[in-house]
Amino acid sequence: MNDQLDTEVKLAIYRVTADTGVIPTSSEVARKIDIEEAEVLDAFARLHKKRLLVPEPGDFSRIRMVPPFSGIATAFPVDANGRRYHANCVWDAYGVAAALHTDAMIAASDGHTGEPLWLEVKNNQPILRSYAAHFAVPAARWWDDIIFT
Amino acid sequence: MLLFRSEETVNSWCEARGIPRRPLISLAQLWQLAVHWYANRLTVESRRPVPEEMMSIFESIGLTGPFWDPKSDQWTPAN
Fold first, then answer.
1. ipTM score of complex
2. Which of A29, A104, B13, B19 is deepest in the core (most CB within 10 A)?
3. What are the distances in angstroms from CA A125 to CA A20, A120, B2?
């Protein structure tokens, strides 16, 4: 029962986010699929336990992350389908293009110098450059502080 | 996770913060990670990979060792 509801809530979150570039709140999801907001909040909590979303600290009606999308502006804006999305990190920036199956332009910057860097996806392939990504923490600790990771 | 123009700026970033250099990921590897993680994320059957699947994905694109083991409690910077 809960699994079916969680899937419905998750898909509604992703549909709205894909269509608008903005992650919906619990009340917006409730209106979208015509259920009580309390049910949506319970689903948010279960999806958080499954590591499928991260609520906004201090406000569980809002979502900080529903990977690869970010609920707040980040240093990884992704322009795709005529909209601007925000990704949680450079992996997720590519993830937005992969999830939407679309071309994308991603404005990023060098983590040390701040120099502007550009990533591009065309025809489901990245335009390769000699950039490097660097994880600060090992895989086993990514979810210890996922907002930092 | 951060992006850098080159290995040199990664090294400078690590030195400035006293952080050991971790493994580097190329854009080709990063794209493969994104596809494995997210290509079906907007579908009914989507889910986050379980640890064993994560290991398999990492190995398939050349990322091996305890740093990439989501169940490892053995990793240290010296690895």
1. 0.89
2. A29
3. 24, 9, 21
